[in-house]
Write a structure and sequence with these properties.
By secondary structure, the chain is α+β, with helices and mostly antiparallel strands. 59% of the residues lie in helices and 17% in strands. It has two domains: 48 residues, no CATH class; 120 residues, Muramoyl-pentapeptide Carboxypeptidase, domain 2 (2-Layer Sandwich). It has a four-stranded antiparallel β-sheet, covered by helices on one side.
Length: 180
């Protein structure tokens, strides 16, 4: 491990001593912020994966207001757009060839949706159960986000069998389609 760290130092144009001292400084700063270095790295990875997945950071209130405007102007087109985006997002995972692609999709989606304090995503045999709640979601945003989730599930071959959506609350149940 020390050899690997020495290679990192060389690649960064500093000595092993300088790199180790920098790591100690970072550990102290992260501790003062009540974070562990491990959590800082995990959180940074979430941001990088979100960025490479086409997500952007934006003001939450503005996002909700824009969702409300689009929904009010053309509800059907807005729902279709969010559904199609969900299909695109889910397809990135579903077509990856990775045997744990659904688990990675679920993990990333939950990590990216930090504006929902409750986000449950359970796969039981051939059914998926999704529950999302947030007191800050507007009615329009709730319906649009639900459409996104249905599109993502569709990309994995799950068809919606029950749906309960109201302001700030989404409950979905989908079943894996049988391919004939």
């Amino acid at each position: 491990m020390v050899n690997h760290v020495a290679e990192i130092a060389k690649g960064q144009g500093c000595s092993l001593f300088e790199l180790v001292n920098d790591l100690f400084r970072l550990a102290i700063v992260s501790d003062k912020l009540n974070f562990s270095l491990r959590q800082v790295v995990v959180d940074r990875k979430v941001v990088e994966v979100a960025k490479s997945s086409g997500f952007i950071l934006g003001l939450e209130r503005l996002w909700y207001e824009m969702a409300d405007i689009a929904y009010k102007k053309d509800k059907r087109e807005a729902l279709k757009s969010w559904f199609d985006s969900g299909v695109w997002f889910g397809s990135r995972y579903a077509t990856s060839g990775n045997p744990s692609s659904f688990d990675q999709f679920k993990s990333d989606l939950i990590a990216f949706t930090w504006n929902a304090p409750e986000f449950e995503f359970n796969l039981v045999k051939d059914k998926v159960f999704v529950k999302v709640t947030s007191p800050r979601f507007t009615e329009a945003y709730t319906f649009l986000f639900s459409s996104f989730l249905v599109g993502a599930l569709d990309s994995f071959g799950h068809q919606l069998i029950s749906e309960e959506v109201s302001r700030g609350i989404i409950r979905l149940e989908a079943q894996r389609s049988v391919v004939e």
